[in-house]
Amino acid sequence: MNNPINDNEVKALISLLDDSDKEVYSHIEEKLISLGREVIPFLEDAWSHAFDAVLQQRIEAIVHKIQFENLLEDLKLWIHTNDDNLFDGALLVARYQYPDMDVSRIQEQLQQIKKEIWLELNENLTALETINIINHILFDIHNFSGNTANYHAPQNSFINIVCESKKGNPLTLGIVYITLAQMLGLPIYGVNLPEHFVLAYCGNDEHFQLDKKNVLCYINPFSKGTVFGKSDIDVFVNRLKITPQDSHYYPCSNRDMILRMIRNLAHSYQKLGDTEKVDELAQMVALFNVK
């Protein structure tokens, strides 16, 4: 158990952050990071009163390192204990760039969309009729759409920005779609196609148990929920000249989706030449390989 933070000690450490001796600064930085997220309010207060740009940059770097270490811990916990909650996984990825985002605002937005869909649903609808209702409310009324103008932009991988701008890539739009489906108890899941991401609406077996191998149809969230069949995936895979695999046709895990989201983000920053972010995201990816 960590000892309570001594306010005066923290303030004394922060007062030394502008020391020109790199060894002194390195020691202070290490000590502050070891104290964890509780020192962030002290650092933010010091930043707001600092007139030295170098000092502000040092404070920003320390805050980021503390937040990133906390994020790694929380992501590790999600991978091993909470990966049944896809939305929480997407929020963790968003926290990388937006640690102070307003989660309740996103939840309220999705609850409102869910309510509008729910009011139109009834148990006699076919899978296609159900999909058409979701598509109409999500894409026609709430105006979600694929970000074709800036397909590789980092913001397409942050669920909070996608919900705010209503534009995203196939994966984040798919995660919004799946999250709404989960809230409504509908059997819609993600399919990890190479170079694309689509959704599968699954049916029941003869004993009325959900069967994820029984895909009734596929949905393309990037093109406003276009519905298509297995033969279209056959054509797509053949065009890529790759050997068809089960993973091209059947639902993937939440873990697979969040891992892909992080890799998409790393690819975006790679294209922008931001090697520091690429390296940090590689640390996040590495957590998925730890047993």
Overall description:
With 291 residues, the protein is α+β, with helices and mostly antiparallel strands. It folds into 2 domains: 7-81, no CATH class; 86-289, no CATH class. 58% of the residues lie in helices and 10% in strands. The protein has 12 helices and 6 strands. It has helices at 7-15, 22-35, 40-49, 53-81, 86-95, 103-120, 127-141, 159-165, 170-184, 230-239, 254-272, 275-286, and strands spanning 145-146, 167-168, 188-191, 198-204, 210-220, 226-228. It has a 4-stranded antiparallel β-sheet. Helix 2 packs parallel to helix 4 (53-81). The two termini are 25 Å apart. The mean pLDDT is 91.
Annotation keywords:
291 residues, alpha+beta, two-stranded parallel ribbon, elongated
The number of domains is: 2
Q: Helix and strand succession?
A: HHHHHHHEHEHEEEEHHH
* Rg of Cα set: 22 Å
Low-confidence stretches: none
- Record the strand order, biggest sheet: 3-4-5-6
Helix and strand composition category: alpha+beta
> What is the share of helical residues?
55-70%
Please state roughly what percent of the residues sit in beta strands, choosing from under 5%, 5-15%, 15-25%, 25-35%, 35-45% or over 45%. Answer: 5-15%
Global morphology? elongated
Number of strands: 6
Mean pLDDT: 91
Distance N terminus to C terminus?
25 Å
